[in-house]
Amino acid sequence: MRTSSNPAFRNLPTSPGGYARFGAAPAGMAGAGGMFGGGGSPMPTAAADDRPLTVDDVVQKTALNAVLAIAVGIASAVVGLGFIGIIGGFVVGLVLALIIIFKQSTNKALVLGYSLAEGVALGSLTGLLESSSSQYAGIGFQAILGVLGVFIGMLVVYKTGAIRVTPRLTKMVIGAAIGVLILMVANLLISFFVDGGLGLRSGGPLAIIFSLVCIGIGAFMLLLDFDQADQAVKAGVPARFAWYLAFGFMTTLVWLYIEILQLLSYFRQ
After folding, report:
1. For the chain, how many structural domains are there in total?
2. What is the mean pLDDT of the chain?
3. pLDDT band for position 80 (cuts 50, 70, 90)
4. Residue 81 CB-density burial (10 A; 0-12 exposed, 13-18 middle, 19+ buried)
5. What is the pLDDT of residue 25?
6. 146 near 204, Cβ under 8 Å?
7. Position 168 in a domain
8. Which residues fall within 8 angstroms of residue 209, CB to CB, at 6 or more apart?
9. What is the DSSP letter of 4?
10. pLDDT value at residue 196
11. Rounded average pLDDT over 233-260
């Protein structure tokens, strides 16, 4: 399999139990697998955790985590957890993410815990932003629609082959993501000594351009994630790794939500 920009998708093991075609769904189930292509196929008879992975496994687990994050996020915004929810959510999410990545854990409790923690953090952040001024009212809903739009758009791009995922493209996206992360850290550190730092989050023209670049990189990371999930299904990865793949998708979706929320806040100003 190709190397992904998403660390959660690297070095996935394969199973000897044959190959599961990306887009194949259990007989009689149209499901979300239809949007990836392919027709129905019988459910493997192996044990649930050891049978080859199918697209339905990935879609269902990813959807479950996304819905959980949104539901918890809405609740956190309504309750108004503020900075406690933001800091606590991101810290817990980071710890769980590191555990999942380094142990390549398929424990659904850890993955759902990550989505829950990120939901608390993002919901608290959105609630704090919306409550600070009436000009930010409804910005969270717009950000969710933006993420959904990017997700669907990149899925169409991937399925139509408009942009082919090649090793060269993968290296370019990874390099761009690393570069952006370095700039973010540098901007944060410099902001402690110089007001506004490098101006990457000041709300000005440079900040808008930077956010657009980050969203573009996030979109291409999503494209690479689709391809990596495709390769995992074709390689016959055990079904339990659907949770691991769902976690990988969630990290990209969190990235996109934060950047789209940031961009929308600039326009609202």
Report:
1. 1
2. 83
3. confident
4. buried
5. 35
6. no
7. yes
8. none
9. P
10. 79
11. 93
SS percent in the chain: helix, strand, coil, step 5: 70, 0, 25
Is the pLDDT confidence value at 34 over 70? no
- For residue 259, give the amino acid letter: E
Instruction: Identify the burial level of 83 via C-beta atoms within 10 angstroms of its C-beta, where 0-12 means exposed, 13-18 middle and 19 or more buried.
Output: exposed
Residues facing 26 on adjacent strands: 41
pLDDT at 18 over 70: no
CB distance 213 to 180 below 8 Å = yes
Half-sphere exposure of 134 (CA within 13 A, CB side): 0
Residue 17 lies in a domain: no
Whether 41 maps to a domain, the answer reads no
H-run or E-run covering 41: strand 40-41
Q: Is 82 exposed, middle or buried (0-12, 13-18, 19+ CB in 10 A)?
A: middle
Domain of residue 231 covers 51-268
* d(C-alpha 102, C-alpha 107), whole Å: 13
Tell me: pLDDT of 22 over 90: no
3-state secondary structure of 25: strand
Length of the chain (residues): 269
pLDDT tens digits, 58-70: 999 999 999 999 9
- Residue 39 forms part of a structural domain: no
The closest alpha carbon to 249, from 83, 5, 1, belongs to 5
Amino acid letter for position 152: I
Q: pTM for this one?
A: 0.81
Name the token pair of 112. 């759902």
